[in-house]
Amino acid sequence: MSMRSRAGTVTALTVAALAVGTVLTAPAAGAAPQAATPKFLSASQLPPHPTSSWTAGPVTEGFPVELDLCVHTEGVPSYDYRHRTFRTDLDTNAVQMTVVADTAAHAKALAKHYDDLIRTCADRLEEGSPDVEAEGRDYGTLPVEEGARVRGLHTETSWGATDIALLSVGRDARTVTVVQWAQLGDFGDAPVAAFKKTTSTAVAKLY
């Protein structure tokens, strides 16, 4: 069962496990708007799938539910989020989210907040459900714009579902982007090198 298809499981885990105490400073009144709209990855810039091509959905307003397993907007300012989902003909999916903060300092704090949520996701999932075993891995930072970090998450349920995800958080000045790739499998199935390239492209492409 994929991370995309097990919506009921994700919802239950999210309600039970995703409680975070971090509260970021609210946006300053009268902050100047971003001069340009952040750009998104194209389908061809995702890690290549061995048997199926990627299809990109439209850029959509709002925070993507596909990130709910680890990332959420609780305790952060009400910024405007945009996202784009991607899929293959098989059981592999991806999503990119962007958000523009009012200052670079707030964006830096927001990027750290989302990276912390991803870093602690495995522990929170296990604490929230006795039916889930989860493991997170840190694949390091990338020297692109203000920086990015890549992490991995493997989950396995008591009924046999096993899923692998790669997630990254990157920043360019006031803009933060989160990218997630996911499919059935374990760490051996994760295209880490290709996903690092995708992450670097996503951050560099924002502006």
Account of the protein in words:
The structure is a single chain. The chain is of the alpha+beta class and 207 residues long. It is 24% helix and 30% strand. Strands 1, 2, 3, 4, 5, 6, 7 and 8 form an 8-stranded antiparallel sheet that branches. It is globular.
C-alpha-based Rg, rounded: 16 Å
Q: How large is the share of residues in beta strands?
A: 25-35%
Q: How many helices in DSSP terms?
A: 4
Average pLDDT for all residues: 87
Our measurement of the CA-to-CA distance between the termini, rounded to an integer number of angstroms, reads 36 Å
Helix content: 10-25%
* Count of individual beta strands: 8
Indicate the overall shape.
globular
* String of helices and strands: HEEEEHHEEEEH
Q: Describe the biggest sheet?
A: 8 strands, antiparallel
Please render the helix and strand layout as text.
Elements: H1 7-17, E1 55-56, E2 60-61, E3 81-87, E4 92-100, H2 104-119, H3 121-128, E5 132-142, E6 148-157, E7 162-172, E8 175-184, H4 192-205
Antiparallel strand pairs: 1-3, 2-3, 3-4, 4-8, 5-6, 6-7, 7-8
Helix pairs in contact: 1-3
Any key phrases for this structure?
disordered N terminus, 8-stranded antiparallel sheet, 207 residues
TL;DR of this structure?
This protein has helices spanning 7-17, 104-119, 121-128, 192-205, and strands spanning 55-56, 60-61, 81-87, 92-100, 132-142, 148-157, 162-172, 175-184. With 207 residues, the protein is α+β, with helices and mostly antiparallel strands.
